[in-house]
Design brief:
By secondary structure, the chain is mainly alpha-helical. It is 53% helix and 12% strand. The strands form three sheets. A two-stranded antiparallel ribbon has the order 1-6. The chain has a two-stranded antiparallel sheet with strand order 2-5.
């Protein structure tokens, strides 16, 4: 009986010390997975249907039958496989593994590219600054043009007034000479009368 007391803890300790095997579960591929709607066109083209509305008409095979207006649906193109896909498609067949398409990822930037981008940014900023200065100069020129036009209009008005005044002055001088001539003639007639 004493031996059982000594063996009992050893048996219990060995039972507790056993390890369970570690089971690694891998995701299993699921057969018959449905493609998302946005990826279907890159694998297989769908059929194209067109609807043709038709008005009333007499049946060509039987003149006693008239068809009412209705719509006729026609399959224009049937489904077919897309042998020239536009974009890579990952068909869900198991763990997700995709090929990296370099067209959709930015290229690594080296020092030359960074320097060229910096130079282009500087040139663009200089061009924008010159454009702002050009706009300012053009606004100043348009203001100066308006002032010059106003001065030209005033000079033209003054020239017209001067011409009118000169004509009036000439008319007054002629009238004065005529009166002086009449006065001289009248004075000579008075002296002749005496």
């Amino acid at each position: 009986m004493k031996n059982i007391f000594f063996l009992m803890p050893v048996i219990l300790l060995t039972a507790c010390a056993s390890k369970k095997p570690v089971v690694v579960q891998m995701p299993r591929s699921v057969p018959g997975t449905t493609l998302p709607a946005e990826d279907i066109e890159s694998v297989r083209y769908a059929e194209n249907l067109k609807a043709y509305p038709i008005g009333r008409y007499v049946d060509p095979n039987n003149q006693l039958v008239m068809h009412e207006a209705h719509t006729v649906y026609r399959v224009e193109t049937t489904t077919k496989w897309n042998l020239h896909p536009n974009a890579p498609v990952s068909v869900p067949t198991g763990p997700v593994v995709r090929i990296v398409d370099p067209a959709h990822h930015p290229a690594p930037v080296n020092a030359e590219v960074a320097a060229e981008i910096s130079r282009q940014k500087f040139a663009t900023q200089a061009l924008l600054d010159r454009g702002a200065k050009l706009d300012e100069t053009l606004s100043q020129l348009s203001g100066a043009f308006r002032v010059t036009k106003d001065l030209g209009d005033q000079a033209h008005a003054l020239r017209n007034e001067l011409t009118i005044t000169q004509k009036r002055l000439d008319a007054f001088e002629q009238e004065l000479r005529k009166k002086q001539a009449d006065a001289v003639v009248g004075a000579q007639q008075k002296t002749n009368e005496w």
